[in-house]
Structures are given as C-alpha cells and as structure tokens.
Known about the structure:
Blueprint: H1 2-16, E1 27-33, E2 38-44, E3 47-48, E4 54-55, E5 75-79, H2 82-91, H3 101-120
Antiparallel strand pairs: 1-2, 2-5, 3-4
Amino acid sequence: MTGLREKIKAIDDKLSKRPIDLDPGGYYVIYIDREAELICAKHYTNVINERGLAVDPDTGEVIAARGKVNRTAETLYTARTAKELCVKVIEEPQPCPITMLDHAAYLGREFMRAEYALVTGEEYVQD
C-alpha cells in the first residue's frame, strides 16, 4: 500500500507544477478550524490583468501568490464536510462566483483534502 501512496503523491506533485489560468471570478483561501471542526473557505475577488496576473480590483496591485496578503474576504464559507462546502460555494450562490470548470474541480479536490486532514488530524496545506 505504501508504494501506491508514493505513486499517487508523485503524480499529484507533478500536476501541481503545471501552469494554470486564474479565475476572473476570484480565488479561495482554504483552511481548517479544528476547534469548531469545520472546513473554511474565504472567497476573494480579483481581476485578471493583460499579463494573466490576479490584481486587487480596488487598487490594481498584483496579488502575491505566496505569503500574507492583507485583503478583506468577500465571503467566508464554512462546512462540516467537503460535499457540504461544495454545495455552499458552487451550487448556492447565484450567480456562482466560480467561472471556470477547472477551478471548481480544483476546489472539490482541495475540500476533500481538507476534510481528510480534519478527520485524521493531519496537517492541511492548500495546494
């Protein structure tokens, strides 16, 4: 079984390095609130500039991909399971803030990873 885990991790690590287009509908910061036993997703708006970079819609400044960004989230979503969070983030808001199918798929994968970490006690770091 260990060999399979290593193979899956190698595939995921390789795919995590591929270039992706950013969603003009915004981005999400996902984390776990262990005390409340919740998966959390903060939604931030952005605009994609001519270079394909996410910029703050208010200031026009490029949003850093790494490190701390001092912005106010548009919405905080919380749920007990990945499926519940998918419903809240993707199905309930009208119109849905997610404008790209690959972004929706990514969020589903990340919500599952966060749920697994919440249940097992493992650390969760968003990919």
